[in-house]
C-alpha cells in the first residue's frame, strides 16, 4: 500500500541492491537467494508423458516438460540446480549465470536442490573469475527432519 501511495505522489522508490550469497551458505527450506555460479555439468532428465485430466479435454496435448539437472557452483562448493523448459537452453557447460530469487527445494525430504521458479530469473553474465570447488557438493549431504518436543526445551 505504501508503494501505491508513493507512486501516486510521483515519488520513485529506490531499488535495493541484491545481496549475493555463496553456495556454502545455502540452507534447507530457504528462498530468495541471489548467486553467481558457473555451470559445471548438465544432464538431461527423461520425463514421462502423463495425461493430465484438464489437458485431456483440450484438442492439443501439452508438450512434454524439458528438465535438466545441472551441477553449478562457485569457489565455496557445488549444488545441483534443476532447470526447467527454457532454462535448459541457458544452462550450458562452462556458462556463468546469475540466479535471482532462487530457492532450495528438498528432494525426497533429504537432499537439497536449487531451483528458480516463475518469480525468479536466470541471467547469463561474463566469464567467472573463480575456480569451482567441486569436492564440496551440498546436494550429497542428507538432512533429516527432527521434531523437537516442548518438554526437551525446558
Molecular structure report:
The chain is mostly beta strands and 154 residues long. The chain has 4 helices and 6 strands. A hairpin with a 2-residue loop joins strand 2 and strand 3. It is globular, with a radius of gyration of 19 Å. The model has no long low-confidence stretch (mean pLDDT 84).
Descriptive labels:
154 residues, mainly beta, 5-stranded mixed β-barrel, 4 helices, 34% strand, globular
Short structural summary:
The protein is mainly beta. The protein has helices spanning 2-8, 53-56, 87-90, 150-153, and strands at residues 31-45, 67-74, 77-84, 96-107, 111-115, 121-124. Strands 1-2-3-5-4 form a five-stranded mixed β-barrel.
Lay out the secondary structure.
Layout: H1 2-8, E1 31-45, H2 53-56, E2 67-74, E3 77-84, H3 87-90, E4 96-107, E5 111-115, E6 121-124, H4 150-153
Question: Span from first to last CA?
Answer: 42 Å
Strand order of the biggest β-sheet: 1-2-3-5-4
The average pLDDT value, as a whole number, equals: 84
Number of strands: 6
Order of helices and strands: HEHEEHEEEH
- The low-confidence parts are none
Strand content: 25-35%
Radius of gyration: 19 Å
Helix/strand/pairing category: mainly beta
Helix percent band: 10-25%
Amino acid at each position: 500500500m505504501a508503494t501505491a501511495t508513493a507512486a501516486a505522489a510521483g515519488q520513485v522508490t529506490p531499488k535495493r541492491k541484491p545481496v549475493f550469497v555463496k553456495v556454502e551458505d545455502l540452507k534447507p527450506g530457504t528462498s530468495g537467494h541471489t548467486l553467481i555460479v558457473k555451470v559445471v555439468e548438465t544432464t538431461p532428465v527423461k520425463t514421462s508423458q502423463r495425461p493430465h485430466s484438464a489437458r485431456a479435454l483440450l484438442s492439443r496435448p501439452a508438450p512434454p516438460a524439458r528438465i535438466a539437472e545441472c551441477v553449478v557452483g562457485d569457489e565455496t562448493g557445488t549444488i545441483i540446480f534443476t532447470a526447467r523448459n527454457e532454462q535448459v537452453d541457458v544452462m550450458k557447460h562452462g556458462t556463468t549465470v546469475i540466479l535471482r530469487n532462487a530457492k532450495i527445494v528438498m528432494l525426497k525430504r533429504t537432499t537439497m536442490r536449487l531451483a528458480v521458479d516463475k518469480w525468479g530469473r536466470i541471467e547469463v553474465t561474463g566469464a567467472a573469475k573463480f575456480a569451482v570447488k567441486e569436492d564440496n557438493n551440498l546436494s550429497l549431504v542428507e538432512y533429516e527432519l527432527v521434531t523437537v518436543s516442548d518438554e526437551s526445551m525446558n
